[in-house]
Structures
1.
Amino acid sequence: MSKNESKTAIQEVITPAELLKHWQGHRSLTRRVIEAFPEKEFFNHSIGGMRTFAEMTLELLAIAGPGLKEIVTKETQALNEHIDHKDQKNLVLKLWDQATEEIDTYFNQITPDSFQDTIKTFGQYEGTVISSILYFIDNEIHHRGQGYVYLRDLGIEPPFFWER
Amino acid sequence: MSKNESKTAIQEVITPAELLKHWQGHRSLTRRVIEAFPEKEFFNHSIGGMRTFAEMTLELLAIAGPGLKEIVTKETQALNEHIDHKDQKNLVLKLWDQATEEIDTYFNQITPDSFQDTIKTFGQYEGTVISSILYFIDNEIHHRGQGYVYLRDLGIEPPFFWER
């Protein structure tokens, strides 16, 4: 049995392609949560002194594309959460869609045997490639869940969680 | 190269043991979020007509252990979110710890080559073993993120998201 043959013979817990689809499914849902906010409340509404959903979204944008780019290129990226959004949701959604393409491009450059490599994202967070990507996804789910509360607080029904 | 040798030669995206550790790490954080709530507010506080964090926690308890048990035993489990908690956080935490043990026990009975098997959890939700387990984890992160907003709304600082 050659090495390539043995590779297809093994059922993986999850394949890289499945992980990418899983991530982009979550990002598609987050996009619809952004869309569900009225423009003003997207940039202004908050509860208990927390950040607005716009600020959380900028954090997600600062992490996903640049973090993945760093994983692939091995060049340290800055964590830049400050974007001149001009209080316009359309500009944020445009950046979201650019990140979607960026993620597709870079993710497909991760070699299947490098998910267990040790890395340091943004020059400071140590982990493996897989633990870092899972952190990116989990952090998005976490903040999006908070966005759901903001929407409910505003009397707006959020998209179904299970729709991706 | 024997089949067993080829198995160790391949770097998996994530191993079953890593996935279990990842899940239990999240559950450990959720446990600390439950602990952070004052007993009364755990059972009473909500925002925008949403469920209390106690009700969300009962959903998580109804899914994790029973869902995993179903995956391993292939016996359909009922989705039972009604538990006689007597408005006592200690009883819920006890159930949480029992679920932690149950998850360890059943997870280790999943054969490595069965994560891609098609299943139907709780007799109705179709997916693979891995997509179902990821859904259980994602759903917990989602609701826990909502619990963070409840805590902030109550003036309580939640545990750090990155501590597991």
Note: Chain B touches chain A through 47 residues (CB under 8 Å).
2.
Amino acid sequence: MSLVEALYPICRSITGDGVRKTLEIVSGWLPLDVTEVPSGSQAFDWTVPDEWNVRDAWIEDLEGRRIVDFRDSNLHVLNYSIPVDSEMDRSTLDEHLYSIPEHPDWIPYRTTYYAEQWGFCLPHRVRESLEDARYRVRIDADRSPGSLTYAECVVPGESEREILVYTHTCHPSLCNDNLSGIAVAAAAGARLLSGEKPRYTIRLVFGPGTIGSIVWLSRNREQLQRIVHGLAIGLLGDNAPFTWKRSRRGTAEVDRVAEYVLGRRSNDNRIIGFSPYGYDERQFGSPGIDLPVGRLTRSENGGYPEYHSSADNLDLVTEDRLAESVEVVMEILQILDKNRYFVNQEPFCEPQLGQRGLYRKTGGSEIPDRESAMLWLLNQCDGRHSLLDVAERADIAFDILAATAAELLDARLLADRSTQETE
Amino acid sequence: MSLVEALYPICRSITGDGVRKTLEIVSGWLPLDVTEVPSGSQAFDWTVPDEWNVRDAWIEDLEGRRIVDFRDSNLHVLNYSIPVDSEMDRSTLDEHLYSIPEHPDWIPYRTTYYAEQWGFCLPHRVRESLEDARYRVRIDADRSPGSLTYAECVVPGESEREILVYTHTCHPSLCNDNLSGIAVAAAAGARLLSGEKPRYTIRLVFGPGTIGSIVWLSRNREQLQRIVHGLAIGLLGDNAPFTWKRSRRGTAEVDRVAEYVLGRRSNDNRIIGFSPYGYDERQFGSPGIDLPVGRLTRSENGGYPEYHSSADNLDLVTEDRLAESVEVVMEILQILDKNRYFVNQEPFCEPQLGQRGLYRKTGGSEIPDRESAMLWLLNQCDGRHSLLDVAERADIAFDILAATAAELLDARLLADRSTQETE
Amino acid sequence: MSLVEALYPICRSITGDGVRKTLEIVSGWLPLDVTEVPSGSQAFDWTVPDEWNVRDAWIEDLEGRRIVDFRDSNLHVLNYSIPVDSEMDRSTLDEHLYSIPEHPDWIPYRTTYYAEQWGFCLPHRVRESLEDARYRVRIDADRSPGSLTYAECVVPGESEREILVYTHTCHPSLCNDNLSGIAVAAAAGARLLSGEKPRYTIRLVFGPGTIGSIVWLSRNREQLQRIVHGLAIGLLGDNAPFTWKRSRRGTAEVDRVAEYVLGRRSNDNRIIGFSPYGYDERQFGSPGIDLPVGRLTRSENGGYPEYHSSADNLDLVTEDRLAESVEVVMEILQILDKNRYFVNQEPFCEPQLGQRGLYRKTGGSEIPDRESAMLWLLNQCDGRHSLLDVAERADIAFDILAATAAELLDARLLADRSTQETE
């Protein structure tokens, strides 16, 4: 939550100094490699736009009273507005104003990344109160060659195969969307770096939405086959249950793991199908890329009243919910990491567990959980069923199965399929 | 409805002048190619039977009072009766009578195509009133060498691949079964001929039930691979919701299209599995033929009280329902025709729609239908998903998707898979 | 039931004279081939244990009053106890006692096959009444080299391909578990031997649980590919509905047949998934064996209060229920035997059934069952659908279909796929 609070005041966009300052603060939590991609660079069908920076902006009446002031909220400026400095009549001004009649006290968040426009976002109540004939408006901003900024943190694993975690950094003062995602990614990354070396390499990417993942994908095109699992994360601080949006493939291993984790935690958690709108999962799921990347959020994009408005503020996000979100991300990553394929080394009938001290000595009428886990593992581990497959079929917790598999591995009753294959 | 009314009085059977007169009247609506297949011709396991024509038929008491008269209703004669001219006692006569005790005022419709029998169908009330010791009976009919008659109307398409529409013409004065099917086929055919040239060639066949489709199939055996979709239609004027009976394959494209059309029109419409009885779909679905031909009706065969009786008359069928049936047939044909496979030409991430003027300029919190259709098409069009696949997955109306696909085709963001393959 | 009563008093275990005496009595019902496998023989990961025989056993107080006496119930001795002859204090004795507090009048059944222990099983009420300081205990038993005994009865069929029926013989005086299974197997075997020669060879195996099937499998490893279907049977005399436990494969033909038979008999019958505990199906379903062997019981193992206690006695099992179980076993075996693949010899459209005298002569509005069976068979018999497939799809009883298929075979409209392939 302290990270969310530190990042809240900064005016971010898809490029600019606000993003750089954000990444600098995040780098206090975990080491980041920052990449700057010059304006004009080609990325598939897209071109990196000019960089946008805004210094000040206001609407004044002719007596110089400020009606709308960027210093009060960076949402007031239509994001990526071109500069303006002019006096105009009310109806002309009104064509450049955005408000939400249903929530007259909230400032909406609107953008104009790829069109040369300017505008102001303001509470509908303020807009309705504009009664003068003429107003003065000023947006002191640049759209000029610069660069697009993204950052990566790599947690090295035993294998070069990677799990990708992507979160978007382009939204200004909106807490749930997406300071929550940035904070959860930072906290998970810090825990991964201080923990045991994972099997998979884990790559966390902090970049702007849409153009950020497009630029990242175009610059890493040759290495995409390394990515075996992926999660786009965001919107992880509000009070909704968790939502897993399936990857385009729908039944990728990451989908099954996420559904397993969410399903065991609460029946309120939701699984939804892939759709080509939302966050960066839509780029990872484009037909030419088609990586197994799903999305973890609490509310969905557009799924809560405060979405894309000034009401998505520090009150909407709590420390507890952020911490729980970190747990869920970690659990998904850990199960992906531990979800191996084993092969029973004594596959003809059951091995004699008692002889190996793995079994209770007096036959009775009930079977303990650990023995049940052993029997299921020995029965199902033919190289075609993963630990998760066994966990789901046997309805035994993944952790118990993983621990029991380690015992059977020690007893040489199981072998790791991948190890066995390379022997 | 005027066509139904014109055809109602005619005595039809699987062969004979009634069928010829029927096809002559239909040819006032759309051009027909009439084929005559001589009696004795072999058709797979069957032989075309002798032609049947009946001139007059009656039962009289010995005073010459007519009890049953063919001129009142052609249903009175057991269809395909051999001639008879005789006086007999009541109990002998009764062995040749057919009636429906549950509906004592209705004349049943019965046939004896392949057995040398004669008989009369009559209201049960009349049968019960026969009290004399002896009666005179006369059926002035021929079963003699002639031919079996069927007719075709071909709507030429861009491709030689065909959609087949078959409707049975063999029933005498029964309106729903199947003057309704004849009328709907004729109206649909007329509309197809006056409309834009379709992609597929569409072939409408008007032939007798069972022996007609068997004869047609045996004479067209070398060309059957042209048929990519097919519908047997009939029973389309009564007040039941629509019923789609799946092709033998069960998941053919025509099944999916028909289920889509019926499902979106009304929840009352029904989808039923294939079964080897009913109308000509049973021949198209025999194991050696196995064409993707399903069946569209309202009530099923045997599925309404008036079925195969004199109560299946002009009161059972209405203009409105016939018109709605034409709409449904046309909609199925049109979706089959438009259901193409496209390939996204910018498959790496999303293309920049804004740059091409295809996207609204200011980012907000809701997504318009047309943009949603674009995103779904760009995401799913990898050559493996048809427009219908996308419509079902995205829950967007097929028409909107088809129109949007045309826009994306113009913008060169989509290409037609079949065109692309031949380039 | 008379067989159950004859076998009830005998003290059985996984080896020993009790098993031999049991098989001798069973051989009065059907001829058995008895196999003796010497102690120390290797069977996959297992070794045949020393043979166990017990002559007498008791707990006495120091005045010589017998508190617990093997002659009252052979359950009193912990099965496979090593000998003991000693005086000891009450608390030491208590470590060797087994009772069921929830059912204070029942003697539990417990075993120690693979650990060198001794013990007594007794009613909890008796255990609680032990108040003396010291007791004398005696178990006059041997665990010494001998052999493990199993028996087979083979019902020869036209083919060398086999259906395996396995039932466990190792439990002492417990009626449902598993004198019921032994009796049902014996009665079914006797009926099969006196009936028509089946298509498949049917092999009934009477052997101890776990070690018995392991030994049998290890000694028949080269012939296992003969086994095309299998049932482990047991617990068939209690008043529960039937339970089919699916084979490891889950969708084997025997699973489908058993589910069909149980489903048509009662909605109370249950189908459960495979799990690696229970009876000998767990060995047949080990990953290296993986035979299509499911399990038929009434209650499941552990699924009734009297399970593994002295209350599983002659009162729990009735003649009627045993007889019904024999019927179910026979029905499963018969459908497996009759479930063939036929091929329509006139596959192009329907054959003309009327011409062949297979069809009623006057067309009406309803279709008789036998004709419906003919049409379904002619439509579905393309060599890819078995009789059971047709029975399930058409919802026509298997028996009616099998009889109708025989008619069509006579009329040369169907051919047996296997016969046709070899022609």
Note: Chain A has a mean pLDDT of 95.
3.
Amino acid sequence: MTTTIDVKPSAENELVLARIIDAPREKIFRAWTEPEILRQWFVPKPWTISKVEMDVRPGGSSLVVMKDPDGNEYPNPGVFLEVVENEKIVTTDAFTEAWKPSPKPFMTMILTLEDAGDGKTRYIARARHWNAEDVEAHEKMGFHEGWGQCAEQLEEIASSL
Amino acid sequence: MTTTIDVKPSAENELVLARIIDAPREKIFRAWTEPEILRQWFVPKPWTISKVEMDVRPGGSSLVVMKDPDGNEYPNPGVFLEVVENEKIVTTDAFTEAWKPSPKPFMTMILTLEDAGDGKTRYIARARHWNAEDVEAHEKMGFHEGWGQCAEQLEEIASSL
């Protein structure tokens, strides 16, 4: 089980998920950047992922297709803005590829990984939005529950690598 | 005088300015990335620029404060998304710094510089927007006239470097 830690938003219109995860940050970074690992934890079960493509570098594209239990698919295209191995990943859905504006910029995700000792990681994921309405919508979509459940799934996968 | 060339938009919601500029691309790149040069050509006269700060690298911030003839100032914060020396510059106002969403993402600018022979440059500046309304607003603000006048000012400065 992950441990929730108290981390406040660092900017306007931000939602933050902060946990101590019982896996080293190198393994968590792999779980975020290797498609075959990411697809095992990146959506809350019983949803699944039917496709993952990632070009992990600033300006590289990513595509994650999520599938609900009825088989409906939801493509999520985006772009990496910043990648620091084992430390930081920033992605946004404001572009579908470098540099094509998407129909609706919704959020920018900033993930930071810090060594927390004993092979554990201080895991902070910040979702920043362009306006207050989108923050509220994201909270209602279940940001905390969804990202929380994914953090648990991530811990299970990463600690098994 | 620059020469207008026929280049079509390469994406939805794009406005494009394409010219042959009588200056080599190394000098044009300098005029785009050195604050003391940029302030001499980056707004159509009689507007002026009262402040320029630029951290020219992917994720680096830029701030250009424009001043109208009555002395009113208009700050334009943004972020560099991609920089290839003497070849390409991509900026956006969707972030005010890495990675803080701005109040209103308006456009992403993609500038490409290609050698056109005889010390000239094929200069293509693409302004991509997130929706059709912003493209229309940008055209009404005088995109073609404004960016065209700036291209002439740029040629004058760059060819004197």
Note: The domain at 3-159 of chain A is CATH 3.30.530.20 (Alpha-D-Glucose-1,6-Bisphosphate; Chain A, domain 4).
